[in-house]
């Protein structure tokens, strides 16, 4: 039987894991302090300790569910004094585990995700990315659904229904999470959503290639099966007053209205025909309203939304898509892996470029002056 120590040699570590940076890791703990998963999981997930074990005891890392709990947020990398790309270091180890059939820790990690992480099927696709290590993500989703139903059945036996009702304004990630957690504890919950369908930014702006709407629909349907009432097309403050909720049957109100407005560039030509804000573009693309797109598309910005917009433009068969970013590649706020995938898909990126004004002809955009 192969052990991790025979699977990962010292040569592997030196070649793939940026050993010089690992060797001089300050052990400052900024990676753990910055980690969203460490915050959610508490002491059961510690990236700094995991890094230490990679050099000292790789066998223990390969046999630990912690290896599979990185959510690819890169907050550790952005704050690390050494600039260690921990998600990619862990990916190398995951790939080794898959290659040699060490998958029991993955099952334990999936169970932990089901127990501790909101919207587990959505976060698995958007955050955990098992497919990057060569795992069939659909098989992981099936495991999650099976484990979650078993967990909910046990919870239902132990929880007593509460007489109190809670109103949740907004059905984005925050609203859905609050509704799910309250429903599990026996509270009666009603979600009020201004849009025609539940999901908020998950439905509105995350592209289909990252989050299939069928997966989101299952999460929403599960809420309904737990007894959560979802009222769509209801805008609080217009169709129903906020005071009406508190004066009525609800004992508490959670506000998760989201941030759906784009920031303006505040440069000349921003209002020309053909200039579209990224959130609006992604929303219309998800609704299927965009049938054709220009041959040459330029995206201004370097965040994850910009990358999603660029890749969506390619999906809509634009011939050339270019991202303009005012700083260097290392300073891009978008996750490095997302940037890598965008470039592999054919997106071009120009760095140290800032638009001064947008030029137009006959009221339509024609060029950008940088």
Number of strands: 9
Distance between the termini: 60 Å
Query: What is the domain tally?
Result: 3
The chain-level structural class is: alpha/beta
Strand content: 5-15%
CATH class descriptor of the largest domain:
Mainly Alpha
Describe the model.
- There is one protein chain.
- The chain has 370 residues and is α/β, with parallel strands linked by helices.
- It folds into 3 domains: 4-146, Orthogonal Bundle (Fumarate Reductase Iron-sulfur Protein, Chain B, domain 2), CATH 1.10.1060; 159-255, FAD/NAD(P)-binding domain; 278-369, FAD/NAD(P)-binding domain.
- It has 19 helices and 9 strands.
- It has helices at 4-7, 10-16, 19-23, 30-34, 36-41, 47-56, 58-62, 75-79, 86-99, 104-116, 120-128, 137-158, 173-184, 201-204, 213-225, 242-247, 278-287, 304-315, 336-345, and strands at 165-169, 188-193, 229-232, 252-255, 296-300, 320-324, 348-350, 357-361, 364-369.
- It has a 4-stranded parallel sheet with strand order 3-2-1-4, covered by helices on one side.
- The longest helix is centred in the middle third of the chain and has 22 residues, at 137-158.
- The radius of gyration is 23 Å and the shape is flat.
What's the structural blueprint in terms of helices and strands?
Blueprint (H helix, E strand, L loop, with lengths): L3 H4 L2 H7 L2 H5 L6 H5 L1 H6 L5 H10 L1 H5 L12 H5 L6 H14 L4 H13 L3 H9 L8 H22 L6 E5 L3 H12 L3 E6 L7 H4 L8 H13 L3 E4 L9 H6 L4 E4 L22 H10 L8 E5 L3 H12 L4 E5 L11 H10 L2 E3 L6 E5 L2 E6 L1
Parallel strand pairs: 1-2, 1-4, 2-3, 5-6, 6-7
Antiparallel strand pairs: 8-9
Helix pairs in contact: 10-12, 11-12, 17-18, 18-19
């Amino acid at each position: 039987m192969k052990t991790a120590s025979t699977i990962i040699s010292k040569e592997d570590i030196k070649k793939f894991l940026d050993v010089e940076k690992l060797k001089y890791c300050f052990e400052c703990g900024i990676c753990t302090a910055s980690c969203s998963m460490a915050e959610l999981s508490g002491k059961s997930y510690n990236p700094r300790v995991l890094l230490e074990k990679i050099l000292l005891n790789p066998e223990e890392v390969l046999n630990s569910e912690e290896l599979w709990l990185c959510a690819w947020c890169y907050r550790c990398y952005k704050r690390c004094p050494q600039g260690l790309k921990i998600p990619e270091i862990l990916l190398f180890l995951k790939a080794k585990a898959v290659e040699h059939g060490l998958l029991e820790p993955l099952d334990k990690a999936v169970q932990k995700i089901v127990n501790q992480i909101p919207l587990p099927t959505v976060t698995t696709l958007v955050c955990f990315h098992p497919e990057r290590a060569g795992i069939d993500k659909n098989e992981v989703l099936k495991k999650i659904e099976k484990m979650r139903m078993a967990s909910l059945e046990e919870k239902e036996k132990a929880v007593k229904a509460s007489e109190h009702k809670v109103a949740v304004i907004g059905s984005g990630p925050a609203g859905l999470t609050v509704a799910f957690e309250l429903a599990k504890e026996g509270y009666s919950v009603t979600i009020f959503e201004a849009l025609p369908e539940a999901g908020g930014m998950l439905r509105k702006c995350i592209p289909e290639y990252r989050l299939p709407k069928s997966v989101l629909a299952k999460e929403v349907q599960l809420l309904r099966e737990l007894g959560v009432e979802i009222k769509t097309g209801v805008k609080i403050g217009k169709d129903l007053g906020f005071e009406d909720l508190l004066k009525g049957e609800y004992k508490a109100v959670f506000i998760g209205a989201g941030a759906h407005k784009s920031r303006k560039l505040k440069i000349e030509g921003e209002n020309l025909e053909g200039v579209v804000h990224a959130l609006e573009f992604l929303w219309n693309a998800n609704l299927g309203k965009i049938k054709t797109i220009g041959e040459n598309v330029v995206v201004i910005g370097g965040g994850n939304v910009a990358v999603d917009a660029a890749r969506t433009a390619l999906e809509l068969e634009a011939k050339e898509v270019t991202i303009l970013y005012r700083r260097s590649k290392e300073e891009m706020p978008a996750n490095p892996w997302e940037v890598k995938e965008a470039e592999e898909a054919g997106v071009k990126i120009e760095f140290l470029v800032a638009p001064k004004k947008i030029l137009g002809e006959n009221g339509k955009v024609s060029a950008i002056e940088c």
